[in-house]
Amino acid sequence: MKLTGKRALVTGSSAGLGQAIAEALAREGVTVVVHGRNEARAGAVADRIVAEGGRAEVAVGDLSTDQGAGAVADEALSGGTIDILVNNAGAYDQLGWTEATPEVWADTYQTNVLSGVRMIRSLVPRMRASGWGRVIQIGGGLAVQPKSAQPHYNASLAARHNLAVSLARELKGSGITSNTVAPGAILTEAVRDLLWQIAPAHGWGDTWEEIERAAAESWVPNDAGRFGRPEEIAPAVVYLASPLADYISGAMLRVDGGTVRCVG
Asked: Residue 59: in which H helix or E strand, if any?
């Protein structure tokens, strides 16, 4: 993918989708800065990348605060310019309109939206100076096809999509592109544990195959009839990060098994 020698920061990459993205970039010759709030977990991912012949560094901090984000940016930049920023870090819960207070909304925006803004402001100026760069937001189908549940989370995803397009317009002619990858429901370890836990109450079956098929139909009906895997999303990020995607700007690439039912 012509990425050898580039440096990337993947936020929230100590587990799940972020980890898969970091590992996929490392396999393409990218030096990856693994980020998380827990140093041991982030270090374990970096160690795994190095053990497989890749190059990895670690940056630890809470991106929902100016101080934490500043520390992460400083650590990431200490090894050189970050060419690729993947804003993956975020959080969600199962709260509905009644439970999600304005304070919950504000906290969600700090974690899911402003965290990315902080990293963009810290890292993009150096990309401009070098004349090349990639900023990739990890969004989701709920940004364009929201449900009644998790309204604060849905809205934060929509903001991520929106700011990616605005940033693309800001960066025109700079050699830097800004795009979004929008996964569907992804089967991370935490999601798998949750499905096993609640399957009996929903009557989803006894085997994992039955549970996944029934849960996907109930929660996220899609053409594939299942949840996506982190390693199925990561290649889309790698492509958008590569020089092969120079002509893609302000775009949303859906990798959701057909969950979002619309044209465009």
From this structure: strand 55-60
